[in-house]
Design goal:
CATH architecture: Alpha-Beta Barrel
Shape: globular
Structural class: alpha/beta
Number of helices: 12
CATH class: Alpha Beta
Bound molecules: guanosine-5'-monophosphate, manganese (II) ion, sodium ion
Largest sheet: 8 strands, mixed, barrel
Distance between the termini: 44 Å
Protein name: PAS domain S-box protein
Number of domains: 1
Helix content: 40-55%
Order of helices and strands: HEEEHHEHHEHHEHEHHEHEEH
Strand content: 15-25%
Organism: Keguizhuia sedimenti
CATH superfamily: EAL domain
Length: about 250
Amino acid sequence: LRLINELRMALELGQLSVAYQPVVELATRRIIKAEALLRWNHPYFGNVEPAYFVPLAEEAGLITEIGDWIFREAAASAKRWSGALGTAFQIGINKSPIQFLSKEQDTWVEYLREVDLPAQNITVEITEGLLLHASSEVCERLLEYRDAGIQVALDDFGVGYSSMSYLKKFDIDYLKIDQSFVQDMEDDENSRTIAESIIVMAHRLGLKVIAEGVETLRQREILNEAGCDYGQGYLFSKPLAAPEFERRFIRNE
Ligand code: G
Ligand code: G
Ligand code: MN
Ligand code: NA
């Protein structure tokens, strides 16, 4: 309970930050994408895991405020890095199902217009849990994103329900293969077969594939041979604060 109250203050006190993890185009090794990830640096507890505090934020009714904050931060980075590279740099932002379903006004499309950032620079990462209970509001919101040009990625694919009907029913641009498959791929024939099958299926449906949790050269090689479009993981880089990300991946210092 106390931690919920502290989370309420965390934004104001500047304890929340954004870490960016590069997403690498496997065939070319180019980096023109990243995922934005929340970080909470607590004065006593140090780094609190988002897996722990995001549910707290949802419970406390803070997720829209925090979600909108990270969205704006990420949009500013996408704009700065696109300018520096002279090409569209895309950032993926996780949107909590609770924020997605909340009655509060969704201001993301409007905000992009305000700051004059092309919507193509933003990908919204959603999970299957959202689509499982997809109401007409969810469908409308996804269509609103689509019309504006925001892309949609389905996160953690392969765990959970992985119902193929979602892929038929919703207009999704990217599948993110869950890191559990990638990490077992070298030793476990089944995980490798599942990953390869997801890639083939996704491509035939016109989706691009991002493999998560790539940690070894061998995993990168297997994924590249299987035609996987993108990789993300500690092999390339852990999530980094904006200045360090910019130094390494935008200015190549
Ligand atoms: O960065 P890390 O691997 O610790 O993230 C753990 C989980 O927390 C991720 O699976 C991610 O989906 C979730 N997460 C990270 N940042 C955000 C965010 O800004 N919003 C939401 N809703 N979830 C996030
Ligand atoms: O949104 P999602 O829950 O998929 O967030 C990805 C999470 O996975 C982040 O919290 C990130 O810190 C973590 N992560 C990123 N790359 C790797 C990796 O190569 N190995 C492992 N174990 N975790 C990773
Ligand atoms: Mn994600
Ligand atoms: Na994921």
